[in-house]
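Session log. Operator J.P. requested a structure for one protein chain; no other inputs attached. Running the standard single-chain path with token output.
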Amino acid sequence: MKKILISLFVFIMIISCVNEQPKAKFVEVTFAVNDTLLAEKYICKDLGISFKPPRDWQKINHKMMSAIIDKTLATQDTAVINILPVNVFLNKERSYSCFLSSIQSKFINNYIREFKAAAEEIKINEGAFSHNGINFNQLLFSKDDLVTVKLIAESNKDMSFMIDYIVPSKQYESILRTIESSIGSIKKNK
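Structure written below.
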């Protein structure tokens, strides 16, 4: 439970950050999706996407989700950027978490630049790729014995989404295939 609270804290600190970054070149990437590693499809009509979270990562209850949203809103500079958690999936036993959030599309580059500036003591591996017709910015980093795979992508002209997969560093390699399968399942709704 302590690691879950730490990952929630890290996530809230991450989204509290927020100027202009050069456009990334999006190279088409194919993922081998292993459906046996994934849960049922989660559809987010508000963001216009669907994806399959990792198997055994349960959607949190409404009360916990409300508390996360309240805490996030309380820590944000609403004059600059609004990032709103939409849903969270947890594996409490292994301290794995997956956050789905919304962000205004016009702030993606600002957010990435400010995030990197605020985390300059952390080595961040940055990349860009395209999959299923979606252009993704990816940030991969470790902090507090946790590895975060952060994906940021536009779902429509006004709204974008961010998915953060957060796992303990010691378990990252063993769960990587599952995370890749989940990423490969992300699609725009028709």
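Operator note: The first helix runs from residue 2 to 15.
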